[in-house]
Amino acid sequence: MRLDPAAAGAALVERCDALAALTEEPGRLTRTYLTPRHAEANTLVGQWMAAAGMAVRVDALGNVVGRYEGAAPDAPAVVIGSHLDTVRDAGRYDGMLGVVSGIAVVEALHAAGRRLPFAVEVVGFGDEEGVRFGATLIGSRALAGTFDPALLAARDRDGTTLREALTAFGGDPAGWHSCTYGAARIRAYLELHIEQGPLLERLGLPVGVVTAIAGATRRAVTFGGMAGHAGTVPMDGRRDALAGAAEAVLAVEAVGRAHGVVATVGRMEALPGAVNVIPGAARFTVDLRAADDAARAAALADLDGRLAAVADRRGLTLAQEPLHENAATPCDPALMAVLDRAVARAGLPVHRLMSGAGHDAMAMAAVAPVAMLFVRCAGGISHNPAESITAADAGIGAAVLLDTLLLLAEDTPA
Ligand SMILES: [Zn+2]
For labelling, which of 84, 173, 306, 323 has a CA lying 20 to 30 Å from the CA of 7? Predict the structure, then answer.
């Protein structure tokens, strides 16, 4: 059996449009965790799931879960998931495309009366972006068993705690453990997501197989110099912290290029910050990501050397403060090989690429082998209302996802 990409694609885009209409802010798409619009999205997704032959439930933390039984009852599930929450002023495919694609795949199985040797579950995670409570991946961490219950006391900007919001939503803060899948209950986790980058478009490919979700290091760096009068201190007598930071920005860029990683200074501040004062201090952030943890470590060591050299030469002090650190999440090699085969069977060139952005698959890797399929998006634009895909590409993505399940079924001993 196959999914017809053209017909499936049109339906997928239509469903993403229907979800995009559920927004907290007029004129733009914002749907955050445990809000009335989130409840409406769960209801709509639940209706689609039920129509596709799935048993539907909303779990204790507000994730909507549909289950399509396998040939044998209570078989471990292949879980297909992504998120239903958005950033503020979001695009309509980031997250949602993965959920509706999973439903489309089950719909096709259901229409053909086909049962696989494993159950198929589709999950619409309630929180991935972390907009409302400042903590990302709440939904998938609950499934993976790595949710931190201390987060229940986290407050949104109106002062409502996660615990209160869950209760008002009809969830069960104390029962978050009931969301958790043991490794015996889940055979694999698959996620289809828009690429959010430009590589597939550049290569002219509709889909790509993800190798790993990048590990990341974020730091706050401060150069300290000497503030002084911009008119009276001669150029050779200055310890200008911002001029040092400017060199550091170029060093960050050079390190990214030299090590094949991505490295960014996204924020910079000069102090005291007056037009007629030589900056006595400069603060900036570094965000460095790599699919390979060893490559990230090597790039950081190189960067440390370059920053120290800048500080040394300019007579500045240098302080670095860690902000965030997460290891890379490698995708499962056997699942990647199955995705490769499905892409090849669709008559497409197989291309592998890393994910620079975080995804629910990061959390799910704690409990199951994970793999991801990226779908091309226009200009690599994401977290932006201009986010755009074609129905044809969406259809190809869903067709490859269905074929992946069929290949996994062939590989399953009876
Ligand atoms: Zn996403």
Answer: 84
- Find the 83 Cα to ligand 1 centroid distance in Å: 6
Would you state the pLDDT for residue 412? Answer: 79
Ligand 1 centroid to Cα of residue 380, in Å, is 13
pLDDT for the residue 73: 87
pLDDT of residue 179: 95
C-alpha separations of 194 from 214, 296, 389 in Å: 16, 24, 8
What pLDDT digit, counting tens, does each position of 8-61 carry? 999 999 999 999 999 999 999 999 999 999 999 999 999 999 999 999 999 999
- For ion ligand 1, residues whose CB falls within 5 Å: 94-95
> If you measure from the C-alpha of residue 412 to the centroid of ligand 1, how many angstroms do you get, rounded to a whole number?
30
Centre of ligand 1 to C-alpha 164, Å, is: 25
User: Three-state SS across the chain?
Assistant: CCCCHHHHHHHHHHHHHHHHCCCCECCECCCCCCCHHHHHHHHHHHHHHHHCCCEEEECCCCCEEEEECCCCCCCCEEEEEEECCCCCCCCCCCCHHHHHHHHHHHHHHHHCCCCCCCEEEEEEECCCCCCCCCCCCHHHHHHHCCCCHHHHHCECCCCCEHHHHHHHHCCCHHHHHHHCCCHHHEEEEEEEEECCCCHHHHHCCCEEEEEEECEEEEEEEEEECCCEECCCCCHHHCCCHHHHHHHHHHHHHHHHHHHCCEEECCCEEEECCCCCEECCEEEEEEEEEECCHHHHHHHHHHHHHHHHHHHHHHCCEEEEEEEEEECCEECCHHHHHHHHHHHHHCCCCCCEEEECCCCHHHHHCCCCCEEEEEECCHHHCCCCCCCCCCHHHHHHHHHHHHHHHHHHHHCCCC
Contact 404, 190 (CB under 8 A): yes
**Cα 275 to averaged position of ligand 1 atoms, centre (Å):** 41
pTM for the predicted model, two decimal places:
0.90
pLDDT at 414: 60
Tell me the CA–centroid distance for residue 207 and ligand 1, in Å: 16
Q: How far is CA 260 from CA 44, 181, 216, 249, in A?
A: 43, 36, 14, 17
pLDDT < 70 stretches in the chain = 414
- Cα–Cα distance measured from residue 5 to residue 9, given in angstroms and rounded to the nearest whole number: 6
